[in-house]
Amino acid sequence: MVAQNIYGKFGDELKATANAMVAPGKGLLAADESTSTIGKRFDTIQVENVESNRQAYRQLLFTTDGFEKYISGVIMYEETLFQKTDDGKNFTDLLKSKGVLCGIKLDKGPVLIPGDGKNTVTQGLDGLAERCAKYYAQGARFAKWRAVIEVSDKDPSDLAITLSAQTLARYAAICQTQGLVPIVEPETMVLVGKHSIERSLEVTTRILNATFYELNRQNVSLERMILKPNFVLPGRECPSFNKCFEQVTDLTLACLQRTVPPAVPGIMFLSGGLSEKESVDILNNLNKANTKKPWKLSYSYGRALQTSTLEAWRGKKENIEAGQKAFMKQAEMCSKAEQGKL
Asked: Is the pTM of this model over 0.70?
């Protein structure tokens, strides 16, 4: 069966955007923390979670001189997409002037599936086409939707995997009809728990297989999307964590080779609770590996690009330059890892 063209007039633009997102030596800055999530980050540096501080912090990131050498696009929360710099310039216009693509977080978070234990499905499909059109008009050219997949001896359930895959595909199809490249993020919570790396491989493989089945069934153009998966990792409480960690490169690549079609232009990993160093080292090892990799392997990092920046800034104007230097240093490290040059 030949897939239907659902993207209409946006075909060339979507393909160009997807390819630009995975330009050599570049990745994404995930600055799409919700108000509550950024509050948790601010708590670690004793900064009050108010809009003025959120605007000041994102302004620090976006006005960093030269960060566009390492960052192809920025994922934003709705509040940030409509914010401005202190001198009145829209953040979207600022980023566009630097050649940086603007993205928007579209999901509205996970909710429990009735009668299915701790398993969840992500909400936010209602009115999604209208929201996509609104964000496109504001300058967004790509979007992100995160599904949360629990890992244990019994989870995730088949129902949870099916619902998450269907929802990710539905979101992706709607995005493409409205001119936004969808980042499809089925995040298996591999670091949470005491499970083995083999269990993480099994679950990640199942969710990716189900997701691409649904993407094809719902006519999503694979050439016009980006995949944002987790690395295949053991749970932090796994008794053999350090030994299993040595298998991350081989098992992550094996999982992707078995599940991700070569039509997908790029795989941009989430950091998912890893440290800045761990995130860089794993990505570097993946790109240095001498094996089949028909897609670009890059980064879409939040904490792994921002932890040092937050610590250097600490909410003080006099620390803006120090924060920007920390951001540039970590962005450069991620860029080198994307090229396998560390």
From this structure: yes
